[in-house]
C-alpha cells in the first residue's frame, strides 16, 4: 500500500502532462483565426449619444433637480412628526426621471 501511495503522484503527473499535449483539431484553429480576422473588420457599434434629444435631456435634468431640492424640507417635517402627502409622489417622480435620464445616456 505504501508503494502505491508513493507511485500515485508520478502517475498523476504523467497523465496530466499527456493531457496538456493533446493537439488542437485543425477545424478549431481555423475557426479561431477566422474569428480574429472578422473582429478586425467589424466597425464599432454606433453610439446612442448621436441621437440624444438635448432639449429633453436638459428638461428632465432640471425637473429632477427641482424636485430633489424639495425633499430635505419634507424630511425635516417627518422628523417633527409631519409627513407631507406628496413626498411619496415626489420620490416616485424622482425615480422615474432618473430612469429616463439613465436610459437616454446609456450606450
Key features of this structure:
single chain, mainly alpha, 74% helix, 107 residues
Structure characterization notes:
The protein is mainly alpha-helical. The protein has a domain at 50-105. Helix content is 74%, strand content 0%. The protein has 5 helices and no strands. The protein has helices at 2-20, 26-41, 54-69, 71-79, 87-105. The mean pLDDT is 77.
Summarize the structure.
The chain is an all-alpha fold and 107 residues long. The protein has helices at residues 2-20, 26-41, 54-69, 71-79, 87-105.
> How many distinct helices?
5
Distance between the termini: 64 Å
Largest sheet: none
Which H/E pattern describes the elements? HHHHH
Mean pLDDT reading: 77
Structural class: mainly alpha
The strand count comes to 0
- SS strand fraction: under 5%
Global shape: elongated
Which stretches are low in confidence, meaning pLDDT under 50 for 5 or more residues running?
none
Percent helix = over 70%
Radius of gyration: 31 Å
Amino acid at each position: 500500500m505504501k508503494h502505491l501511495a508513493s507511485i500515485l503522484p508520478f502517475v498523476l503527473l504523467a497523465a496530466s502532462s499527456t493531457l496538456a499535449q493533446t493537439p488542437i483539431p485543425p477545424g478549431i484553429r481555423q475557426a479561431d483565426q477566422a474569428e480574429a480576422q472578422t473582429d478586425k473588420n467589424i466597425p464599432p457599434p454606433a453610439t446612442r449619444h448621436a441621437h440624444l434629444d438635448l432639449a429633453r435631456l436638459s428638461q428632465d435634468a432640471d425637473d429632477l433637480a427641482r424636485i430633489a431640492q424639495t425633499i430635505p424640507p419634507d424630511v425635516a417635517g417627518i422628523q417633527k412628526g409631519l409627513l407631507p402627502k406628496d413626498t411619496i409622489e415626489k420620490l416616485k417622480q424622482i425615480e422615474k426621471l432618473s430612469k429616463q435620464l439613465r436610459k437616454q445616456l446609456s450606450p
